[in-house]
Amino acid sequence: MQLFLIRHPAPLVAPGICYGRSDLALAGDVTAAAARVAAQLPPDIPVYSSPLRRCRELAAALHPAPRHDARLQEMHFGAWEMTPWQEIQREALDGWAADPLGYTPPGGESVAELQQRVLEFVAEIRALGMSQAAAVTHAGVIKVLAGLERQLPPRVWMALSFDYESVISVTPE
Predict the structure, then answer these.
(1) Position 155 confidence tier, pLDDT thresholds 50, 70, 90
(2) What are the strands, taking DSSP E only, across 42-171?
(3) What residue segments make up the domains of the chain, in order of their start?
(4) In this structure, is the dihedral angle defined by the CA atoms of residues 99, 155, 151 and 49, taken in order, positive or negative?
(5) Residue 38, CA distances (Å) to 72, 81, 157 in order
(6) What is the Cα–Cα distance from 82 to 150, expressed in whole angstroms?
C-alpha cells in the first residue's frame, strides 16, 4: 500500500509555541493550499484526516468526503500545549531527551503512544485492501512513518523536519 502523507498548512499560532493537539485555525487560504497539494496526488485517492481543524479544512478541500481518524492527530503535549518552548522547564525537556520514546509530558502522551496509534491506523487501512490512500496529518505522525520506513532510530526520526503542505509517499510494512 502506498500512503501519501500530507502535512497541514501553517496554523495561526505565534512562532516557538508548543501546539500539538491544540485545535488551531489556518493562517492562510486553504483553497490555494489544496491546489498545491492536489497536484501531487493521484486522482480520486481516498483521503483520511486528523480531526483537528488545520487538517480537516485541507482534507475537505481535497476530497468531498474525507474520513476523520483521531489516530492521525498530533502528539498530545498535555500541560505544555500553547506554551512557548523556551518557557518549558529545562528539567522536563532534559527528561524527554533522555527517554525520547517513553517520556510523557504532564497530562499528555509519549512518542511511543503516538507511534502505537499511528501503526494501528496503518494496519487498519492496510486490512481494507487499499492500494493507495492519503492522510492529511501532522509532523509527528509523518515522522513516525517516514522514520520507520527509512529504518531510522527514534532519536534520528524524531528530528526529521517536514514543511507545511509537504507531501511524502511511504509504503508502510
Answers:
(1) confident
(2) 47-49, 67-68, 83-84, 132-137, 167-170
(3) 2-170
(4) positive
(5) 19, 31, 26
(6) 31
User: Residue 18: in which H helix or E strand, if any?
Assistant: strand 17-18
pLDDT in tens, 113-129: 999 999 999 999 999 99
pLDDT of residue 173: 76
pLDDT at 114: 97
Strands 167-170 and 17-18 turn out to be: unpaired
CA-to-CA distance for 147 and 93, rounded, in angstroms?
22
Q: What is the reported pTM?
A: 0.96
CA angle (150, 168, 104) in 5-degree steps? 65
Average pLDDT over residues 30-52: 97
Residue ranges with strand state E in 107-147: 132-137
Take residue 94 and report the three cell numbers written for it. 532534559
pLDDT tens-digit map of 70-113:
999 999 999 999 999 999 999 999 999 999 999 999 999 999 99
Fold of 2-170: Rossmann fold (3.40.50)
